[in-house]
Design a protein that fits this description.
The chain has about 260 residues and is mainly α. The chain has twelve helices and no strands. The longest helix has 28 residues. The radius of gyration is 25 Å and the shape is extended. The model has no long low-confidence stretch (mean pLDDT about 80).
Length: about 260
């Protein structure tokens, strides 16, 4: 896949102007087709004002789709095939890296070490680094098959995992509260997903394999739902504090509250 993050910064200026002149030349070549030429010129101007990543993710796909639509001489069937090709290439080569942007943000989570000893800081950082790597790997694995993507959408497990890690970074002492999440749940979920994906990608899958995969999906879903409980544990103190504050506030209101 084409990794936008690996483009050397010293090449960005040349790439941007290369796209500009490339689209300008295409616009001249398609000058007989008003709509196509117009969109190519607009795209050429646009690439000068946006980042390289936005050029690949949005500008070029949109421009090429409009170019195809603006060239009726190609015929409806050819236009449809070319549009689907552009969309498919975007989904295959560009979008996976755009979706990983949140993972990079997660890696920048600042750990609150105020109440930790030097030894505790070292131990927590090692554990937290492992948890981040597992979370990133789990997100990638959950995108490998339709069934796994459906589980992720239904349970929002990646969202809950990342939210739990954010809470742990803010309050490392909470690690003892969710030790089951850190040392059992997340590692088991990761390994189960690895095994599932390996079987799912076999060239030939027997009926018995399909049965095992179905059972594995059910177990993966159970683990994903259990992560919700882990998150509730790390925010339990905040919830309890809110409830206490609400009770105190209601007492001050006397009988004037529902």
């Amino acid at each position: 896949m084409f990794d936008l993050n690996n483009i050397p910064k010293q090449y960005w200026y040349k790439i941007r102007w290369g796209f500009f002149w490339g689209l300008f030349i295409l616009g001249m070549l398609f000058s007989n087709y008003t709509n196509a030429a117009t969109w190519l010129f607009i795209g050429g101007i646009t690439v000068l004002g946006v980042s390289i990543k936005q050029i690949f993710r949005w500008v070029l796909p949109i421009v090429f789709v409009l170019l195809i639509i603006g060239t009726p001489q190609l015929g409806l069937m050819t236009q449809g095939i070319l549009v689907l090709t552009v969309i498919g290439l975007r989904e295959l080569l560009v979008i996976p890296h755009a979706n990983n942007k949140r993972l990079k943000h997660q890696s920048r989570l600042k750990i609150n070490t105020n109440d930790l000893t030097r030894r505790d800081v070292r131990v927590f950082k090692e554990t937290f680094k492992r948890l981040r790597a597992s979370a990133a790997h789990i997100e990638v694995l959950l995108a490998e098959t339709v069934g796994l993507r459906r589980i992720n959408v239904e349970t929002k497990v990646v969202t809950y995992i990342n939210a739990t890690l954010a809470e742990l970074a803010a309050n490392p002492a909470q690690l003892t509260v969710v030790d089951n999440f850190a040392y059992r749940r997340l590692p088991n979920l990761e390994q189960l997903l690895v095994s599932y994906v390996e079987i799912a990608h076999h060239a030939v899958i027997s009926d018995n394999d399909k049965k095992q995969l179905k059972e594995a999906r059910q177990l993966i879903k159970q683990l994903a739902i259990a992560v919700h409980d882990d998150y509730r544990l790390v925010i339990r103190k905040d919830v309890n504090d809110l409830n206490d504050r609400m009770s105190t506030t209601k007492d001050t209101l006397g009988g004037n509250h529902d």
